[in-house]
Amino acid sequence: MKKVLFVAGSGGHTAQLALLLEQIGDRYRTELLLERSDHLGIERFAPRYKVYTACAIRGKRESILVTLFRVALNLCQSLVVLLRSNPCCILTTGPGLGIPICLLGKLTGRKVVVIESWSRTTTRSYLGRLLYPFADLFIVQWPQMLRYYTKAKYLGRLA
Amino acid sequence: MILVTVGTTPFDTLIEAVDDLAPRMGEAFLCQIAGGRYLPVNAPFFRFKPTLESEMESAELVICHGGAGTLFRLIKEGKKVIAVPNLERADKHQKDLVDTLTAGNHIVSCYDLSQLENKITCCRAASLARYHSPPCAIAEEIVRFLGE
After folding, report:
1. What's the rounded Cα separation, in Å, for the pair A134 and A132?
2. Which of A57, A155, A158 best tests the B interface by mutation, with the highest count of B CBs <10 A?
């Protein structure tokens, strides 16, 4: 069985992940990377799956310096998670939490799957913008998004 | 009863507007306020509940933030919804989904809280379209792509 690392931040991103895992979570050796402060998400998934955590990339209204520090910290945490989990594929439903680990995964020869959020109907997320050139499979949930991401796939919506 | 729900991120300006409106309209509101600092005095409130199932069911109309989870759930049931995008958040992505669902006639949107009373009247009179999920092959595609 292949090992897949699923990555999601809190709120709606975890909700989309949960819907996906209901369908395919048992097909793989599923492990998760969640946001450290997402207690609801960790409580929800920890009984069933191995859960790693890392800090969020963007807090609310904080300075660029703090964000840079977070990115550096997250990069280190993501690298440790990647080495410990050693998945053959990384799949993320966003948000920024998924960027470092997917880039590191790509650099080390793993497949990367990105699902742009269901709340992105006409504008792109940071995650989408940054990972689109690197993703092996890029999925959007609204057909209008295909004009930005011409090689992406629209296959319906998780809601 | 009109249910007001902000999801997980505080949205004090919405709660304040509702609190202001409640005595003037003589309407019964119930507010879910998350970690908000403003506590309404003219309407009962709570911060979080594991599920809002029963509150949503008994509500005649729901005023909510622009979070996808809340919106999709309500419009699938054909509830009357007024969505107020929370532009107090660091990112402004809620506008995106709210505009799309408004264009699809699934919800009524409210960008200006001084218009909330009008929007409630509009929403009551409007015949909104229930949302039906499109067929979804995302999981199948991932399985196909990853192989067994």
Report:
1. 5
2. A155
